[in-house]
Amino acid sequence: MSEQRLPDQFSALEQFAATWSLPTERERSRRRLTSTMPDIQAFYEAILPRAGAIIEYLNGFALDEMPVPERALFHMLLPLAEVANAVEIFQQPQVTDGFDPERFIPMHE
Amino acid sequence: MPTADDKELIWTKKYPELGSAPVPIEPCCSPAYFELERERVFRRTWLNVGRVEELPNPGDYYVRELAVCRTSVLVMRGRDRKISAFHNMCSHRGNKLVWESKGNCRALTCKFHGWTYDTSGRLIGVPDEKNFFNLKKDGNGLTAVKCEIWQGFIFVNLDPDASESLLEYLGEVAEQLKGYPFDKLTSWYTYHADERVNWKILLDAQQEGYHVPILHRRTFVKAFESESIPYYRSVDVRLFRRHRMLAAGGTGDRQGVSPVETLARRYGATTFGAMSGGDYAGKVDSPLTGTFDFWVIFPNFVIAIMEGTYFTYNIWPLAVDHTLWEVRSYYPPPRNAGERFSQEYAKCTLRDPLLEDGSVHEAIQSTLASGAKTHFNFQDEEITLRHGHKVVADYVRDGK
User: Fold this and answer.
1) Which domains does chain B show, CATH number per domain?
2) Which residues of A touch B (CB under 8 A)?
């Protein structure tokens, strides 16, 4: 591990930060689609039990004025929303029989 | 032979004038029919092009490319704060005036020869004006497009002779959606999908619930599963002169709530929680018939309302077999990380089932022009499609 990205109390998640701390939906979606299920599952299982505590902690910061480590943590929380369906429903990264996600373009970022 | 009881053929009994005959496929793959739709439907009806929150300040503007109407429309809030719409076209030689998708200005200047317009569309500057021939600036402003606003939704009508106001056009829709908190759900996320599909096929795949237990068996099915029969039933269908609504009644949380969904619901409305009428934070009192009311505003605008969130579709035809599907989902402006996370989950779990739909849209279109089949077979829950095809056919035939 080269550098610490996350706030100290969440350092147990540090190993996921390089891969999963992603600021845009495009990046999060591509990470989901190009990861293996074991990798997605490992991320999901690591972050889910801590997600409530992460949110309560981050709710103490203004959304658009988070310090760098808190922002990195926030950007690692959002992909939990991205991968939830892969783990809980499809048991694969892609939507089963789904339209090409690269052609369903988020215009909000 | 199956017989109809109180669980079958409900809507056809409510609207017997629509009949029950198979419906022709040709209007979904005929280029000639598409040209008639262009002239007689899209150039003569009120079309939603956005919301007032996109233009908070005087001088704010955005552009919508309305290929189906063969024009580009400039929507602008003037210095007088009034929102107007114009053909995005210079009065000199017809150059497209604004090339970027949005911005703010004191005035707009054509990139070709520098003709300049103010935020009310008046021509205020012509370089080397004296070298023209009695050019009248007064009569050479931008060409206005009829533009009216309902509940913060901006609509335009490309027909300069349109006699109906937007409110008259919306009719019962405006009346029955009164009280929905559109003004509180002003934070939205937008997706664009460019699909090889006819615009009516795309809309039809969305405006019925018959497909939900099959196509969405992994996703939305649990929101609407019926206790008494293994099929989808709307709790109400209302067909108006042009517009229509179907209401779905949700199952609440009887089917269980997944771990991430549970977390997201602590901070706001999720797609699944709101559709099914489950338990979640951020409910806003709303005039709903079911838990999920799907309003189709003719010809191409959908407002799907739930408690605490809604989404819209703007379905923009590009060619007979080519459509831009614009999807927006709306939430209250997020105040903290928890609310933002909840919205992230809500939009991802709307997007994924829509990817299930997107595949079907193109798969249908890929076979339509084969000529192998001439008609669609619609069932009772697909009366909304039957109604939609009839309204389009009436416009194409009569021009109204």
Assistant:
1) 5-25+177-398 (3.90.380.10), 47-168 (2.102.10.10)
2) 25, 48, 51-52, 54-56, 58-59, 61, 63, 74, 77-78, 80-82, 84-85, 88-90, 95-99, 101, 103-108
